[in-house]
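Running co-folding for zinc ion.
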Amino acid sequence: MTATLIAGIAELVTNDELLDGADQSERLGRLTNAAVVVQDGVIAWVGPAARAPEADERRDLGGRAVVPGFVDSHSHLVFAGDRSAEFAARMAGVRYDGGGIVNSVNATRAATDDELRSLVGSRVAEMRAQGTTTVEIKSGYGLTVEDEVRSLRIAGEFTTETTFLGAHAVPPEFVGRRSDYVELVIGEMLSACAPHARWIDVFCEPHSAHAFTEEEARVVLSAGRDAGLGLRVHGNQLGDGPGVRLAVEMGAASVDHCTFLSGADIDALAGAAGTTVATLLPAVEFSTRSPYPNARHLLDAGVSIALATDCNPGTSYSSSIPFAIALAVREMGLTPGEALRAATVGSAKSLQRNDIGVIRTGNPADMSVLEAPSYLHVSYRAGVPIASSLELVAEH
Ligand SMILES: [Zn+2]
């Protein structure tokens, strides 16, 4: 039982709306000149440094800011291969239609377990080095029973937030036999994958010939729910569509992308704000040169929002939550505080987690430290690597 006092915190953003003496503007639960005591990996005390209790060890952050660890609630880290040429082609004007997923499927199937494990490990390390402490990881580049199970098993070595995404694309060997593939996904593949997954997801996108229709998505989600999995949906990415409506109707925890939303979609999301989070992925709009959704409008309408990277080889090969935060501020109308909340407590809500995203007594010591005196610097110093996860290995 070693207690460590973390002192020298110029500014502490807790997201704790009940924290005594904290500045609650933008619901950030903000303290200046703060300290945190961590005991056995759990937060034991939070408050002003001047009132900090004694501890066995002391660590001084020298005037840095501390924020809740970033929660990246949408990523596709289990893949092999390189698709940088597709990015270059898009920047030269080629439109994204979901077709390149097959390139990653071929490379992923050809990779060994050790190769995949090492690729996922280096991507997770890259995320931690940028302040992310929790990551959700989807399968979806295997698309055979064996390769989907293997993707989830490897993802599960790095996170408990694993998502079965057999319905990512119709694989090449099933072209012209879509219904046979959906049968496989909800039958043998789901049975084999469910023990390794917490969530099920589907790419519901009538604008892509490679993705799934509303009816197909409904069948996949229903089967996943029957197998005990929580629901997530890729929706409304390439144009107006049924994804948001379906996610709300089925009580999904999250509907992700939300690039193209009708007034009715926004009303539906606002009405479901206690259940369904709209997860915005601005690095995708950046990397596909698409219009950004209006996050300001969503917040004003009462929608629960989250921010994530969608780190994947096709449409967003960025592992950086600070980049997503900067884009949300610059392009989507959020304040730096709103964007920070969306990428922490907002993403935690989309994973139905209340033990992360908020720095409060009793929660795990899940924090990130900034090479800066204030959280404002995350978006102010875009592109500069100032955030990293706070590693609590004792310094002697
Ligand atoms: Zn995705």
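Result summary
Residues 74, 76, 234, 310, 312 surround zinc ion (CB under 6 Å).
The mean pLDDT is 96.
Job closed.
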